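Researcher: Let's do a round of design. I'm pasting the structure tokens now; please hold your answer until I've finished.
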């Protein structure tokens, strides 16, 4: 079985993330969407809320498993017996950061391969950071998020 890990903070999961997940499902037998605790990033939503949002947004994807983690990605890959990491690239700035992370992970575990997928053009500008910035001013974000995620965010913010 070809298993890959799609790690991220998913604060919150966006349509861009779902685009990458759908495309990765065409390549692998199982995708583990690994939601990072990322306390240093001071996420808007708790780890439990982010896991719930990812589970809800991917509930119709049979190849998806969702887990939270607070450890090195290479250690998670050992726990999951998965040596492929999927990452999304929207812009050149993403590439520079992701390249460094891919090399760092490979220096810790040479068997760990990272593949990079570009989102569809319609989702190329969508990021969790953009969504959080708009949410801070109660702006319109429903077109950037899976409908389940939008509904959950409305509930969490009450």
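Researcher: That's everything. Go ahead.
Model: Designed sequence:
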């Amino acid at each position: 079985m070809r298993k890959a890990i799609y790690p991220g903070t998913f604060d919150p999961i966006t349509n861009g993330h779902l685009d990458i997940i759908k495309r990765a499902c065409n390549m692998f037998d199982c995708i583990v969407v690994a939601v990072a605790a990322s306390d240093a990033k001071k996420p808007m939503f708790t780890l439990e809320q982010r896991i719930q949002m990812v589970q809800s947004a991917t509930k119709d994807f049979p190849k998806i498993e969702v887990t939270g983690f607070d450890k090195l990605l290479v250690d998670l890959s050992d726990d999951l017996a998965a040596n492929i990491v999927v990452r999304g690239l929207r812009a050149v700035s993403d590439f520079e950061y992701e390249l460094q992370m891919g090399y760092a992970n490979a220096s810790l575990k040479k068997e760990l391969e990272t593949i990079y997928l570009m989102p569809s053009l319609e989702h190329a500008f969508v990021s969790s950071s953009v969504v959080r910035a708009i949410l801070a001013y109660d702006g319109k974000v429903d077109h950037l998020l899976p409908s389940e995620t939008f509904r959950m965010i409305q509930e969490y913010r009450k």
